[in-house]
Amino acid sequence: MLNSYFKKNEALSAPIQLDLNTTLLQLAYNEAGLIPVITQDATNKRILMFAWMNKQAIELTIASKKMTYWSRSRNKLWIKGETSGHVQTLKSMAFDCDGDAILCEVDQTGSACHTGREHCFYLDIDLDKKQVNVPPSPL
Amino acid sequence: MLNSYFKKNEALSAPIQLDLNTTLLQLAYNEAGLIPVITQDATNKRILMFAWMNKQAIELTIASKKMTYWSRSRNKLWIKGETSGHVQTLKSMAFDCDGDAILCEVDQTGSACHTGREHCFYLDIDLDKKQVNVPPSPL
Asked: I need a surface site. Which of A48, A125, B79, B132 has the fewest CB within 10 A?
């Protein structure tokens, strides 16, 4: 599971810079060529959604600054907001220590969730009552 | 990909409550029985790490309030901080709209990353220079 490309950067006495294209080749894509992506609101730091990208989607997102995912249900590239207008403008992107996940901060236009809710993580667990609270939809 | 259990809660005119145990059975675990978990600092909202849980890990996390993941490299349950002392105390948990990801807010003791850095997403991309900036390790 551990990739030596990332392993060698764990202990550093001074900052270094890696080439982006070389790093993209080293990410821990799964057997379908996909890597998990966490999308966070750059302003209020809320987690908006969780999705997947392939290498091309990462490259298109960086080039266009428009969040572009791989839709596993439609099996194709998916520019977020292409039909709804609820685009996400990329503000920052980071990889984690072992190169198996991506964190993107974005400016969100409209609602992030296709249900009309502001974010996708609306199924909130009441840890004491062992219940899942689901809020009404604004649509 | 869409699960009718979650689909039917997309459009709601009033809030509802779901049974937690029933919902846990409906989550979109992958072929290895795992679901992605995003761990966020409950105080400063920083994304600390990304990992995986199976159903048992979710149940243990809820029961103990100590974040318990499934280690894919060691192929076993992994109580975060069990050896390092850098435990994560669960403050809130939520599922996303289609039940294929979990968001947990935690109180982090010590550093979240095994490299000693405060969080795992320290490989920061310079979108203009097409470089990845890696900060030094505190260890």
From this structure: B79
